[in-house]
Structure formats: structure tokens, C-alpha cells
Amino acid sequence: MNSSFNAKNSGIEHAQLKRAFLFRKNKEAYKLVFREWNPLLHFHLNNVGIHDDEILNMFDFFQEAEDVKEKIVKPEDIDFGVSDLTYQRDEEHNRVIVFKDKLIIARVNCFGKDISDDMRVQSVELFDGFANLYRVDFYDSRGFKSMVQWYTPDNKIATETWYTPSGRPVVEDYYRPNAQGKMDKSGWKTVDAKGTVRQYDTIDGVLLEFLNAANHKYLRKTKPNIFIMDRSDLYEELLPELREPAYTVLHLHNSHAGDAQKPHTSIMNNNYEYSLTDANRYDAIISATHKQTEDVKHRFDPKAAMFTIPVGVIPDKHFDEPRVPMKDRKFGSVIATARIAPEKQLDKVIRAAGIARKTVPEVTVDLYGYVDHSNDDIAMKRINEAIKDYHMEDAVHIHSYVNNVSIVQKNAQIYGLASVMEGFNLAMMEAQSEGDVGITYDVNYGPNELVVNNENGYIVDYGDYKKMGQYMTDLFTNPDQLQKMSDKAYELSERYSETNVWKDWKALLDDANKTWKHKMAVWNPDIEKGLEKLD
């Protein structure tokens, strides 16, 4: 259960994909559940191998658009209700402007080359006879009008309506002035095929209706519906309110403590504070590492079943691939594949490499990931300062986000990590599976379990980038030790093979099936008898 899925995603989305493919391989039915409306959702998920029947989006569900045959809608396909139109291409903004004589009728915006090379319609801005914008029609990438925004005379959004592919309105929200006079969402409603209207103050009401309907649709007496919250802040209050039984799971993708180095005493991570406070309302809790599982038990003593299931999964066939020896890689190469964000502290990895470079001048650092510009670009400022301090202008290379990181991992020798906190760190796991030697801060959770100290890498005290630099120097000046640790990195990666991770998931599935028998035995379904013929 997540919010959305886009072209560039975080570790949570990558973890979900790995889980999805593992479930598919083991013939365990699943759906990736999303709350947010996203006209490119199916496009992005199809691109990474997820099928339409494995996607369950809240808006799709109400719009009866879970399985839609794709068609391409181009600007000239739109019916504006008038004839003899002129179409003017605006290449700079990737749109077409439509005129009737000299009067603007519409601006048709296209998805562009990110989705295809054709001029596929993304949205249509419609203007009245006085050239005022009064409506915008948004199209799903699969080729149907999905949502319409209606505007006020002073150019503010007043209403948004979502439609089925056949054009029937099913979901609507309203904007009204709030206490400060700002237009804000003030209510939602849904309309089903029978014409039943349900009204809600917030999107949470719509979401609970969706969850109840989905749970009912797939409810079986012999096997539970298992709801796994990967982004608990969207679902944590609602799952315990389901009308019919389900097996509910809180998945911890990050440290439960705000200060990961003080897991028993620090203020809680606000993403999990509500969930863990109410953890006994769920059936199970998943942590990605054994250490976090024990820390959660120690701090909260939850009655929910606790499971340790790595979020990373390495295909079994990967272990049959030939290994790349260190001598065939770029000598002195240090990499990190992560968001360039303050909490990743990539400047510390650069400083460590700078120390090693004083002895080994061939040392380079390659960073792969999109830049987080928050807090006045503090992450890049710190990186640039580290580069300047160690005169590494020609040795540090920052690359954009890449999907196929295995190519660069196969050519690297050391993977450096200096995060403030982690939930697991898929990137390090993947790098180790390609034979990269890990050097990491002793940080919760994941890095200090992925790296087995003195075997497949080194763990240094949190904040000690000088020691990290010393280890880099030692490895680059001792090729036998570097190769030995690379061999061990390959071997220890088998902890995260499909076979081993599936065993962990099977333990949860078995518990769900066991719990299900009890839930069904005590469940009293809603009244149905006597409601068929009301006078």
C-alpha cells in the first residue's frame, strides 16, 4: 500500500517491486495499492514490468478503469463542438493552440517524448468567448478523459470531477474559501453505478470506502486479504476500521526512532509515531533487519506478530553469473547510488576518499542519484565544500538518476555509505551482490547488518569519516585483501536470495492463514436477511 509511483522513485517503491516479482514467481496473488490519482501510473508501472491486473489504484477502482484498452488521443481527435478550426503547434511548450478565426478555443497539452514520440493528449484547457479559462480536461495516458477541473470567474479551481472511460462521473471534490479566504478542498463525494451518493469531509472518507469495497470484493472464507502498509501515514488510522476481517501489517521502511543511534530513548520518527503507538491494532509488524525487530520489541513490547523480512531480493539466477575480479574494475573507484540529500551525508564519503587519495592518487568518487534541493541546497553545498577542501574537482563525478545501476556497480571497487539513518539500503545490498566492498558508518538500520565487519567490508564508528578514509587506503594498497572482501561480498549476498527471502515471507503468510481461522470464527457479518423487500 503506497501513495503513487513515478518515473523516479524512492527505496520504498523499489522494495515493493522486488517483493512483487518475488510473489509473482511463487504464484502468490498480489496487487500494488495506491491512493493518489496519477494519469501516468499504469505507464510507469508497465515500464518496470508490473501488469495492469496487479495494480489497484483508488481512483481506478471508482472509475472502473483498472483494465482499459489503450488508445492514442491526439489534438485533432478532440471534439470542440465547432468546425473550421486552426491548429497552431507550440513546440517550446509541447502543446497545440486551437483557434476559431482569431478566437482561442483551447490549449491542448501533450505528454511529450517521456511517454512516446507522438503528440498524445495530456490535458485540454478550454476558454469561453471572452478568452477566460473555464475548464481543464485531464487525460489518462491510456487514452480517456479521466478528470475535469472547473474554474471560477477569478481563475480558481472550484470543482474536480473524475469520470469512468465511458464518461460517467464517479468522484468529485469541492473547493471553497477557508477562514483565511483561500480556496481549499472542503468536501468529497462518490457516486456508484446505482446512483448512490456518499459524501465525506476529507479524502480519508473516500479512501476508507475504497478499502472496504476492495476488501469485500476479494474476501474469501479460506484465505485472508493481507494489507501491507508501506506508507503507513496514509492508511494507519483506516485499516483497523475495516468493516470485514483482514490481516493488517505495518511495514517499517526506516528507523522507528528519530535518532537512529538511540533507538530506545529518542523521539519517534514521525512517520511511524501513530502506527507504533497503536501497533496492537494491527496483526503484524515487519522490520527489514533483525536488529530493528529486537529494538522494536524492546521499546514497545507489541502484541502484534513480529517478522524480519529483508526488503531487498536478489534473483537466484544472479548467483550463476560470472564474478568480476577487482583487477578488471576501475582502480580506486568509490561509488554511491542514492538521493543527493542531507541525510545521506555524501560529503563525508568524499572526504574519506579525499584522505585515501593522498596516498592513492587514482581514487575517484561517482555519485548516482537525483539532487534534493531542500534547505537551500545544503546537500550540494556540503559536497562542493568537501570537493574544494580535498582538491577533488577532477575526481568527483555526479551523475543523474539511473535505472540500471548494476553496470556501474560491476565496474566499481568500494561502496561508501555515511547516512544519518537507513531502513535497509537496497543500493548497498545490490552493490555487494556485484562484488563491491562496503564501508559504512555504524548506522541503524541495514548497513551495519549488510556489512559483516572485516569480512565483506568495514564498519566504522558513526561520524568517523577519517577511519573510513584509512580503510579505503588500506584496501586500495592491498589488492589481495580487496579481492578477498569482494569474494565475501558475493557470498554473503546469498542471504538475500529469492529462495531465502521467500522463506521469511512464507512465515508471515502462514501466520496470516492461522490467524484467519480465528478471525472468521468470531466475525459477525452485516445483516443481509430481511432487507430485500422493503415497503
From TrEMBL:
SUPFAM superfamilies: UDP-Glycosyltransferase/glycogen phosphorylase
EC number: 2.4.-.-
One Pfam match: Glycos_transf_1
Protein name in UniProt: Glycosyltransferase
Keywords: Glycosyltransferase, Transferase
Domain annotation Glycosyl transferase family: ranges: 333-491
One GO MF term attached to the UniProt entry: glycosyltransferase activity
Keyword Glycosyltransferase: yes
Leader peptide range in chain numbering: none
Gene3D superfamilies the record matches: Glycogen Phosphorylase B
